Every structure is written in C-alpha cells, then in structure tokens.
C-alpha cells in the first residue's frame, strides 16, 4: 500500500497488513520523508543563523550609535536617515531569522527516529526468507517520540525528583511462517523524565532534569500443541537455550501449551542494523533474530523428543 503522506504527518503512525515487498516500499517512503525533514530543518537552521545573527548585530549597533549621538545632539539628518534604514534592515533580518527558527521547530515531529523504521526494515528482510510467497505481515509503528503526553502513564516522586513515567508500545509485527508457526515481535520503550528545583541561600533557583529508560523486546511463537507435546514443561530448558547478544538481559521466559515467549531488556540507546557490526550496542534486530532462533531450538527439541517417545511406545506395543 502507498503511504498517505498528509495523514501520516497528522498522526505519525503507520499500520498495514501486506506482503513484505509492499511493507518495505512503505518503509522506504518513510525513510525519504524523514530525510527530507532532516534536510529542511538543517537548511532552516543555517538560514536562521545567517539572518538572525547579522540582523541582531545590525540592530544592536544601530541602537547604540543612535543613543550615543542623540544624547550629544550630534546627529545629522542624513545620519539619522542612514541609521533608520540600517535599523529597519537589521530588525527585519532578525525577525526573519526568528521566524525561520520557529518554522524549523514546527517541523520537529517530522524528523523521525531512524531506528524505528530501520528496525522494521531489518526484521522484514530477515523474515522474508521464512515466509510463504505473498504471505501477509501485519506491521504497526508509532513514530512519535516516547515522551508525548498521551504516552505518560503516571506522575510520582522518586526520591527528591518529580518524575513522569512514559510507556511507549511503538512496534508490533505479526505473521505466520511457512511452517505454520505464528510469530509476534513487539517492542516497548519505558522512559522516566525527572526534574527537581533547588533554591540557594542567595535566592537563586536551579532546576535539574534527568532522563533514564530502557527498551523491552519480546518475541513469541504460537504453534499447534499436538505437534509439540510437553512444551509447557520446558521453561528451564528454554531459559538455558536462549542466546542473546552481550549486555542484553533476558528478562522473562513464558512457556505454555503451544506457546513460547522470550522478553529481553535493552539499553535506551539500542540500534537497528541490517548487518552485524562488531561493537554495536544492543542491536535490536540481531537480538530479535537470536531470540527467534532460540525459540526454534526449543521447538526442535520438543519435536524430536515427541518422535522418540512415540517410537518407544510402538516398540513396547510390539
């Protein structure tokens, strides 16, 4: 499907159910929109500085000269006219520069977090080889910042800090693989914005702010219980079989009949890379891939054990 650009710039959310090639085309459109916004904001910043700074200097110098000459009554009519023109030009440049900075600020929501659509691109490309031709994939992205007001869940005190808590379930991908397993990948970012003010003995008030957070990445697989009997008793084995990148923490393992879920905790500075790079910090795309492979290792063990038990049962019956 084609992205409705005007609607996207109102909501900054994306949702679609389509084959991987169509979704990748949409992600490329989002990438181009983001690149355009970044270029516009960069150009507006340069233009703002090149107009506001000279304009401010001209206006300040004009005012200083005018104030000094008026006090000494030394200004001529021609000088007054020149100061007037210079002041108008400087003031106009200053106003234009400030308007350019204001325009740049209004474009801030369009400057997307590259990691978000980048993670979708990386995972779609990796899953494509395990999907049936034209298999539909459901993808939901919330590309707004994690600290928008409607993502705030509560306000509280943490020590001496006034703290806003934000929960941002921004990523969800669902599909059925070629072997019939239903896969769901979700990512939730949790953020705390802390603030406190302190008044010194001199009466000055200083305000300090802090941000801290982390991301939770979960991968779950749903299969037919008859094909994988006894899966619900393998939580210990699933935990031991899980392999994750260095520094990524396994936070939860949930096993039930026909279901297996892994949840990992990543730094808020996670990255999303299509290719493995040495030293990459908390690569979310690689983490999701390793979690899915770990799940399939457990499913494979369950399947082999079931076949072995069935073979033993047939031998005993003979």
Give a nutshell description of this structure:
This protein is α+β, with helices and mostly antiparallel strands.
Q: Structural class per helix/strand content?
A: alpha+beta
Report the major sheet.
8 strands, antiparallel
Helical amount among residues, as a percent range? 40-55%
Low-confidence stretches: none
| Whole-angstrom Rg | 29 Å
Note the total helix count.
6
E-strand count: 8
The fraction of residues in strands falls at: 25-35%
> Judging from the principal axes of the Cα atoms, what is the shape?
elongated
Helix-strand string: HEHHHEEEEEHEEH
Q: Distance N terminus to C terminus? A: 58 Å
Instruction: Tell me, rounded to a whole number, the average pLDDT.
Output: 87
Keywords:
318 residues; alpha+beta; 8-stranded antiparallel β-sheet; single chain
Task: Explain how this protein is built.
- Strand 5 (182-199) and strand 6 form a beta hairpin.
- Helix 2 (20-72) packs antiparallel against helix 3 and helix 2 (20-72) packs antiparallel against helix 4.
- The mean pLDDT is 87.
- With 318 residues, this protein is an alpha+beta fold.
- It contains 6 helices and 8 strands.
- The protein has helices at 5-11, 20-72, 77-106, 114-128, 235-241, 284-317, and strands spanning 13-18, 137-142, 152-158, 161-176, 182-199, 205-222, 249-256, 259-267.
- Strands 1, 2, 3, 4, 5, 6, 7 and 8 form an 8-stranded antiparallel beta sheet that branches.
List the helices and strands and how they pair.
Layout: H1 5-11, E1 13-18, H2 20-72, H3 77-106, H4 114-128, E2 137-142, E3 152-158, E4 161-176, E5 182-199, E6 205-222, H5 235-241, E7 249-256, E8 259-267, H6 284-317
């Amino acid at each position: 499907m084609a992205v409705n650009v005007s609607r996207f710039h109102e909501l900054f959310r994306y949702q679609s159910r389509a084959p991987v090639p169509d979704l990748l085309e949409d992600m490329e459109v989002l990438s181009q929109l983001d690149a355009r916004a970044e270029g516009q904001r960069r150009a507006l910043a340069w233009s703002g500085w090149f107009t506001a700074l000279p304009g401010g200097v001209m206006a300040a110098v004009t005012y200083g000269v005018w104030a000094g000459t008026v006090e000494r009554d030394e200004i001529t009519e021609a000088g007054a006219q020149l100061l007037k023109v210079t002041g108008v030009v400087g003031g106009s440049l200053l106003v234009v520069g400030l308007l350019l900075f204001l325009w740049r600020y209004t474009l801030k929501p369009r400057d997307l977090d590259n990691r978000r659509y980048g993670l979708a691109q990386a995972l779609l490309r990796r899953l494509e080889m395990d999907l049936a031709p034209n298999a539909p994939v459901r993808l939901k992205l919330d590309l707004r910042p994690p600290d928008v007001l409607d993502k705030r869940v509560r306000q509280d005190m943490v020590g001496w800090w006034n703290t806003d808590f934000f929960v941002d379930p921004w990523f969800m991908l669902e599909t059925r693989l070629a072997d019939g397993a239903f896969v769901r990948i979700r990512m939730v970012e949790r953020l705390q914005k802390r603030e406190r003010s302190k008044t010194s003995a001199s009466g000055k008030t200083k305000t300090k702010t802090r941000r801290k957070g982390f991301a939770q990445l979960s991968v779950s697989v749903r299969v037919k219980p008859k094909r994988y009997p006894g899966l619900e008793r393998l939580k210990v084995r699933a935990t031991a079989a899980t392999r994750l990148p260095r520094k990524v923490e396994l936070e939860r393992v949930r096993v039930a009949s026909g279901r297996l879920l892994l949840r990992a905790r990543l730094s808020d500075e996670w990255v999303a890379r299509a290719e493995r790079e040495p030293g990459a910090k908390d690569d979310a795309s690689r983490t999701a891939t390793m979690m899915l492979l770990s799940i399939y290792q457990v499913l494979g063990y369950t399947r082999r054990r079931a076949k072995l038990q069935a073979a033993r049962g047939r031998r005993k019956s003979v």
